[in-house]
Design a protein that fits this description.
Blueprint (H helix, E strand, L loop, with lengths): L1 H5 E3 L1 H16 L6 H24 L5 E5 L4 E3 L4 E9 L5 E7 L12 E5 L4 E8 L5 E5 L2 E6 L5 E7 L3 E6 L2 H10 L20 E8 L11 H7 L3 E7 L4 E7 L7 E2 L2 E2 H18 L3 E7 L3 E8 L4 H10 L10 H11 L5 E5 L5 H17 L1 E7 L2 H8 L5 H26 L3 E5 L4 H15 L3
Parallel strand pairs: 3-11, 14-17, 14-19, 19-20, 20-21
Antiparallel strand pairs: 1-10, 2-4, 4-7, 5-6, 5-9, 8-11, 9-10, 12-13, 15-16, 17-18
Helix pairs in contact: 2-3, 4-6, 6-7, 6-12, 8-9, 10-11
C-alpha cells in the first residue's frame, strides 16, 4: 500500500500509451499496425518496470529539509530555505511541492531542479504574511523521476511544522541601524537641528567624519594638535507611551495589512529606538476596555515583553472609550510623558466627540495623535474624470480628504501634536516626530 501511494506516473508515460492506443485503433483499418502497437506496449511495460527498479531500489535516496525559523516577521518578505540531497548514483529530476499555510491562500507552489549523483542543492523562497498568529506548514512533497521519465516516486518530509508570525522585527532591525547612523535620509528620516538645552555634555573625543564642526573644542584641539570635538547626549529617561486604539476603525485594510498591524509594527520599531536612546518605554492598548498596560521602563530586555504583548493584540468591533483611556492615564501615568496615540477618525464629528478627552490628556502630557491618510482616496482624487459618476466619486473623495486635513488643524489649534501619514510611512514619520520633539526639548 505504501508503495502504491508513493508511485505516480510521469506525463511522458501517458504520451507513450496514447501512441500505443492509437495504433490499436488504426489497426482495424491498417492490419500491419497491430503488431507495432503490441511492440510499443511491451516496450512501455519494460521501461515501466526498469524505472520502478531504479527509483525504488535505494532507501533514503532523496533527503529534503525545510529550515523554518521559530518566528516570521509580519508584512515583510521572510526567506524560507530548503535543502535537498540526491543520494542516487545517477542524475534525477525533482519536483518540489510545498504545502503552505492556509493564510497565504497559495496552492500552486512548484520548484523544479535537476540533481547530479550525490549532489546537494539549496534554494530559498519567500513568503509575506499579513496577519499575526500561528502558521502551519504542511508536507514538503518531493517527486523524483529518473532520466527514463516513466514513473515518479513521492517522498514526504517535515509534515506539520508550526511557526508564529510576530510584529515586524525585520523593520525594527533596519530602523535600529539607521536611526543611530548618519544615513537617516536613506529611509526618509529627517535630520533635526538640535536646539534648546536638552543635551548634556558627555566627553571630548577625536573628530570623525560627520561630526558637527560647531562642536569643535578649540582648547583641546590646540593641546593635542588634532581636531577634538565635544560629545553630547540627549537628556535621558523620559517616559514614553505608545497607545494603540484597537476599536473597529483600526480594522480597515491597506495593501493587505490592517491599520492595527501598521500601528503595531510602528510601536515595536519606535520602542526599540527610544530604548536605545535611554528613554523609558511603555505601551497601552484599548477599545471598550483597557486591554494592555505596560508601565514605562528603561530596559532593553523590556522590548521582548512589548513584542509578546503586541503579538496578542487584535481589533474588536467596538467603539473605543477615550474617557476610559483618560481615566487610566490620570490614575497610572503620574509623570509628564510623551503619548503617541495611534487611532483613526474618518469624520470630523467623530473627532469632536473625543476632543474633550484628548485636550484633557494633552494638558498633563505631550500628546501626539497619529492619523492615517486614506491612500485609496488620494488615488481616486488624482484620476481624471470621464463621466458624471466619476465626478461624483471624486467629489466625495475630496470631501473626506479635506476633512482629514481639517482634523489635523483642529487638533493643532488645541495644542495637540499630530502626524498625518500614509500607512506604509507610519514608522518613519513616527520616529521623525519623536526625534523632533527630543531635539526641541518639548517634552
Amino acid at each position: 500500500m505504501k508503495f502504491i501511494k508513493s508511485l505516480y506516473l510521469h506525463k511522458q508515460f501517458y504520451i507513450y500509451m496514447a501512441i500505443a492506443s492509437s495504433c490499436f485503433l488504426l489497426s482495424y483499418w491498417v492490419k500491419m499496425l497491430y503488431p507495432i502497437a503490441w511492440i510499443i506496449t511491451l516496450f512501455i511495460g519494460v521501461l515501466f518496470l526498469v524505472d520502478i527498479l531504479l527509483l525504488y531500489r535505494f532507501k533514503n535516496a532523496v533527503q529534503a529539509r525545510r529550515l523554518l525559523s521559530e518566528k516570521l516577521s509580519n508584512s515583510d518578505e521572510n526567506p524560507i530555505p530548503i535543502t535537498i540531497t540526491n543520494n542516487y548514483p545517477f542524475k534525477v529530476s525533482v519536483d518540489i511541492i510545498e504545502e503552505l499555510p492556509v493564510q497565504f491562500q497559495k496552492r500552486d507552489f512548484l520548484y523544479q531542479a535537476h540533481l547530479k549523483p550525490n549532489e546537494k542543492h539549496d534554494f530559498t523562497y519567500k513568503v509575506r504574511p499579513v496577519e499575526r498568529g500561528e502558521y502551519l506548514f504542511g508536507n514538503l512533497n518531493v517527486f523524483v523521476s529518473s532520466q527514463l521519465k516513466i514513473v515518479k516516486r513521492k517522498h514526504l518530509f517535515q509534515n506539520h511544522q508550526m511557526t508564529k508570525v510576530y510584529p515586524s522585527f525585520i523593520q525594527m532591525q533596519q530602523l535600529d541601524f539607521l536611526a543611530i547612523s548618519n544615513y537617516l535620509s536613506e529611509f526618509g528620516l529627517k535630520k533635526i537641528r538640535r536646539i534648546g538645552n536638552t543635551q548634556e555634555f558627555e566627553q571630548i573625543k577625536d573628530y570623525v567624519q560627520g561630526d558637527d564642526f560647531r562642536t569643535v573644542n578649540w582648547k583641546a584641539t590646540a593641546k593635542r594638535g588634532e581636531l577634538m570635538v565635544n560629545q553630547y547626549q540627549d537628556e535621558k529617561s523620559q517616559p514614553i507611551y505608545s497607545i494603540i486604539d484597537t476599536g473597529r476603525v483600526m480594522k480597515m485594510p491597506f495593501n493587505g495589512l490592517k491599520l492595527l498591524d501598521y500601528a503595531i509594527n510602528s510601536t515595536l520599531a519606535f520602542s526599540n529606538v527610544a530604548l536605545k536612546k535611554h528613554d523609558k518605554v511603555g505601551m497601552i492598548s484599548f477599545s471598550k476596555t483597557i486591554e494592555t498596560f505596560l508601565p514605562a521602563i528603561e530596559k532593553l530586555s523590556y522590548l521582548n515583553k512589548i513584542l509578546e504583548n503586541l503579538y496578542n493584540i487584535n481589533t474588536q468591533f467596538y467603539d473605543s472609550d477615550f474617557g476610559l483611556l483618560y481615566a487610566q492615564l490620570k490614575r497610572k501615568v503620574t509623570h509628564r510623558s510623551l503619548i503617541l496615540l495611534y487611532t483613526n477618525f474618518e469624520h470630523i464629528s467623530a473627532l469632536k466627540r473625543q476632543l474633550p478627552y484628548l485636550k484633557a490628556i494633552s494638558k498633563k502630557h505631550m500628546l501626539v495623535v497619529v492619523l492615517f491618510e486614506n491612500t485609496e482616496l488620494e488615488k481616486l482624487i488624482a484620476q481624471d474624470t470621464e463621466d458624471l459618476q466619476s465626478i461624483y466619486h471624486k467629489t466625495i473623495a475630496e470631501k473626506f480628504s479635506f476633512e482629514k486635513r481639517l482634523m489635523v488643524k483642529e487638533l493643532q489649534k488645541n495644542g495637540i501634536q499630530t502626524i498625518l501619514t500614509p500607512p506604509e510611512k507610519l514608522t518613519i514619520n513616527t520616529i521623525n516626530k519623536y526625534l523632533e520633539i527630543k531635539a526641541r526639548g518639548l517634552l
